[in-house]
TrEMBL record, chain A:
The keyword ATP-binding belongs to this UniProt entry's keyword annotation: yes
Taxonomic placement: Archaea, Methanobacteriati, Methanobacteriota, Stenosarchaea group, Halobacteria
Residue stretches making up the ABC transporter domain: 22-272
Name under which the protein is recorded: ABC transporter ATP-binding protein
Keywords from the named record: ATP-binding, Nucleotide-binding
Biological process according to GO: organic phosphonate catabolic process
Gene for this chain: phnK
GO function term, MF aspect, one: ATP binding
InterPro entries for the chain: AAA+_ATPase, ABC_transporter-like_ATP-bd, ABC_transporter-like_CS, P-loop_NTPase, PhnK
SUPFAM superfamilies in the record: P-loop containing nucleoside triphosphate hydrolases
UniProtKB/TrEMBL annotation, chain B:
Lineage: Archaea, Methanobacteriati, Methanobacteriota, Stenosarchaea group, Halobacteria
The organism's place on the tree of life at top rank: Archaea
Gene Ontology molecular-function annotations: 4 iron, 4 sulfur cluster binding; lyase activity
A Pfam family matched in the record: PhnJ
Biased composition (Basic and acidic residues): 1-13, 319-336
Protein's recorded name: Carbon-phosphorus lyase complex subunit PhnJ
One BP annotation, GO: organic phosphonate catabolic process
Keyword Translocase: no
Residue numbers spanned by region Disordered: 1-24, 318-350
Keywords attached to this entry: Lyase
Amino acid sequence: MTLLEASAVETIYGPGCPDCLDATGDRAGTNQCPRCGTVVACAEADLDVAEGEVLGIVGESGSGKSSLAEALALERDPEATVNGEVSYAGHDGNLLEVDYQTRHDLRSRDISLVHQHIRDGLDLEFTGGGNVAEKLLSAGWRSYEDVRMRVRELFEETEIPVARMDDPARTYSGGMQRRVQIARALATDPDLIVLDEPTTGLDVSVQARVLDTFRRVQREEGVAAIVVSHDLGVVRLLADRTLVMRHGRIVESGLTDRVMEDPHHEYTQTLINSVI
Amino acid sequence: MAKETTSQHRDESTGGGTPVPTDSVDAALSAVETDGLSGYNYAYLDEHTKREVRRSMLKAVAIPGHQVPYASRPMPLARGWGTGGIQASLSLLGPADTLKVIDQGADESVNAANIRRLAENTAEVATTTDTTKADLIQSRHRIPEEVLTDDQRLVLQVPITDALRKVDPSDAANRRRHAHKNYGKMWVHLYENVVEYGEINIASRYPTMVANRYLMDPSPIPRWDVPKLDDANHLTILAAGREARIYAVPPHTSVEPLAFEDRSFTVERFPEQACHACGSTDTYLVEVSEEPGTTAGDDDTAASFETRYACNDSSFCAKRRENPNLPKDHHLDRSGVDWGPATPDGGENA
């Protein structure tokens, strides 16, 4: 069953002009409109995510994958203009047009975002456990023992040392902070998790363990996910289907194996060849 | 309420003020003693200021717990020393009112005495130290032990207006949180408190929900006093001079300290302690270090001091010394009034 369906999503920085969409994109070879200077971070993006499915988004830096993911995760950048239509199984109406209160409710119960930058997602002065508990407490949990038990359970699930639960998050290693973010995202049993560059800044062995953990938890909980990464390896490991983005447009999409083994678009071919 | 006091010695060259000789300190002081206050408006503040403060107070009453901005004039004492409370009091006082001012439970502290004298001199109100006789009580850090009634008003001085500042220093972000009743961060603070101490251990400024809508900083009153605000008969005005904000708890408004279902809100405990002066066990006690005996000793080494417990509310303590069984609702025509801790409904402890 389709959980999330997006059509014609666009994120634009600047005044915009009628030529913006025609003058940018893959064929034009740029994401900045030559007439008005507007940056079209992503546009004409259509996609859907089924329940329990993992969708990968790959592309080089600046291709618009984070902008697209943030729009889908209800993260708002006040400087950007976001248009399009996103429908979600648990909500009537366009997700891009919800008010702050609905957005807050959806973000604390249904859709979680694991930020690219740890400081955007965690309060490092709080304890690791406190950061995870915040999600539960915001969702209305009022029993201390229940919160405590759930946090401990999530720490075990995401393989963070439970003994470190009550230490400030700033004393955690990068890999642990990333896991705390994942534990926090999972806390309220959301239907969809958006991971923005889940392995940034981690060394290869820690990357592997974080990805392993996420893959196991994702399958056990049956939660759908959108994984954004510049790293083809990450997407190959996690995603069922993959979108390839360039200059703010989706240039190719398909089953991950198909995209990796038989890339159709010239850019995808270069991308895969440059890795392998 | 508005009454203009004009002095006969009004001197136009000093803008209505009193000319003060500057050749010697003694001459200057004696001049101030005689006509120091001529030229001031009734209740020190001008009528426009008082009206603006009252308007903010009305708005604060209409939205319980919401912080309403006001102009906050400079006052003849430093901001942070009760300027908000004075502006609220002076805006409310009329010539028929009786004022009581307390500072941490005491009527005699320098700050309380000076505020009381300012109101006496400028607003010509009667003053009292008896809680039950006051129409308006300005207080810092305490709510009196005796039950406040529906014809009394309590003005609390507030140093920090936003309970959320403890968890996020950004006022802009906190205003947004208040607007959307998003208090998750404060709950994390309570959670971490329980993790660290096994119970919620916030000594004062206990985060409190007003009318199930706004999170309020109840000013630095001890936890002991917070339950007195719930469904109270009196109006409470909380005013901050430095931060220029006024908020209020109207009568019969629900005031609920934040707590977990399984880690409830607790007040301060004084196990097996009683006030050394009046013997009360149902009042908020503070530790005092005093020299034993009544005469001042010659050697003031540490060993000659002893630590005892005493009532924090000095005027009620004085009454209890005369009548040790005086209940906190003795002045009401009904007994068993529920008023804070150790005064449960039913009155059997009184």
